[in-house]
Amino acid sequence: MILTVTPNPSLDRTYEIPALERGAVLRAAADRVDPGGKGVNVSRAVAAAGHRTVAVLPLGGPEGALLARLLGGLGIEAAGVPVQGSTRVNISVAEPDGTLTKINAAGPELTAAEAEALLEAVRTQSADADWIACCGSLPRGLAPEWYAELVARAHRAGARIALDTSGPSLTAALRERPDVVKPNAEELAQAVGRPLATVGDAVKAAEELRALGARAVLASLGADGQLLVDETGSYFGVAQVAAVRSNVGAGDASLAGFLAAGGLGPAALASAVAHGAAAVQLPGSVMPTPADLDPSAVTTTADVPLDRALTEPA
């Protein structure tokens, strides 16, 4: 079982329009609403793979009630913590050429009591969890050290923690030695304070995060592949992708694949790469099922191509 923690979840509403024209009244050709947030996406990918998952998250207002119903419809157990504010609604506007314009709401401000209740919910739900995945930005009211406190408490209870966040929240949590951190190339560059031009630069940055406390670093390098640096060495994985339809949630699918495969070593990296590659070939934030995966398209190696230039350097 994989437990996910999403401190700032959302309802993600997408409108499909012929073209985005400022100041005009636009009519949507289609629209849909999906449960959102990085941890929620991890749970969606885990559930799509047929594994049990529990999502711990704050829920408020009718938006929170709808989010809980949507999760239940996907086979995800929602361990909701009631909050006074309403769960945020994010808006995406999709054009036929693939251009996506997003408006992300700030979300509710949590009180000290609600922040503590969220930590307590993680404790009560984690007894039989193989992994706890803590993902996404923190809402207003939660200090950057909140993730650090969560990691510390989880470790005291004997749980393994994967952390996918960035900025001060990541920096603060490193001292508590999360078992895995999962930055993308931009977040990895931000964490070490310099641009990354090559895969070798990314390896050095990952090693620095390990020196600061991370036990393993799983870094998504976009189209260039994925990198795993842990106590046994450095590993690189890449997959052949026929066509990219959407990269929304691809990193979350990768983390789900990594944890579902044990969260350790090259085999887990191969699963992460396969899940990420499948996700980018699906529309919107649709998570891949086992039928979507193509393990034969994945190559992993301990011979990391250090000189390979990153196509989108941070």
Tags for this entry?
four-stranded mixed beta sheet; 314 residues; 9 helices; six-stranded parallel beta sheet; alpha/beta
Low-confidence stretches: none
Can you write the helix and strand succession as a string? EEEHEHEEEHEHEHEHHEEEHHE
Helix content: 25-40%
- Compute the number of helices: 9
Characterization of this structure:
This protein is 34% helix and 23% strand. The chain has 314 residues and is α/β, with parallel strands linked by helices. A 6-stranded parallel sheet has the order 5-4-1-8-9-10, sandwiched between helices. The protein is globular, with a radius of gyration of 19 Å. The protein starts with a strand and ends in a 13-residue tail after the last strand. The mean pLDDT is 94.
Give a quick rundown of the structure.
Helix content is 34%, strand content 23%.
List the helices and strands and how they pair.
Layout: E1 2-5, E2 10-16, E3 30-36, H1 38-48, E4 53-59, H2 61-73, E5 77-82, E6 88-94, E7 100-103, H3 112-125, E8 131-135, H4 146-156, E9 161-164, H5 167-174, E10 180-181, H6 185-192, H7 199-212, E11 217-220, E12 226-230, E13 233-239, H8 250-260, H9 265-280, E14 298-301
Helix pairs in contact: 1-8, 3-4, 4-5, 6-7, 8-9
